[in-house]
Design brief:
mainly alpha; extended; JmjC domain-containing protein
């Protein structure tokens, strides 16, 4: 969420709060002196140092500067447009709460279908 993960303990996550975490695939690697690990933007990751060391983060901001949160020099936060989209979605979901459950379910499913049709690529890797 934003620039921080809400999963605080990856070894013992709250699966009631984060049920999808059980489906996550863990990858483990051990780096030696001089090794580099590239982690794509927005990928959840956790690091454990077995010995002392130095970590250097480099954040590539390849979009126009206006796409990023001006208060986020590292590019960790959601893109500015993405943050606005999520805020709009939260407002829409709050409005749905005004409906009885069966109507909330109906319109919620319509929202999901519209998002799938309009926003998702058909060539997504799963």
């Amino acid at each position: 969420s934003g620039d921080k993960s809400q999963v605080l303990d990856i070894d013992n996550p709250d699966l009631n709060k984060f049920p999808e975490f059980a489906k996550a695939t863990a990858y483990e690697c051990f780096l030696e002196a001089g090794d580099i690990l590239f982690i794509p933007a927005f990928w959840f990751h956790n690091v454990i140092n077995e010995e002392g060391g130095v970590a250097v983060n480099a954040f590539w901001q390849h979009l126009d500067a206006s796409a990023y949160d001006a208060k986020d020099p590292y590019g960790n936060k959601d893109l500015a447009v993405g943050a606005r989209v999520l805020q709009s979605l939260d407002r829409a979901l709050k409005i749905l709460d005004e409906l009885p459950q069966q109507y909330r379910d109906f319109y919620g499913r319509r929202m999901i279908l519209r998002i799938q049709e309009k926003a998702l690529s058909t060539d997504q890797v799963t």
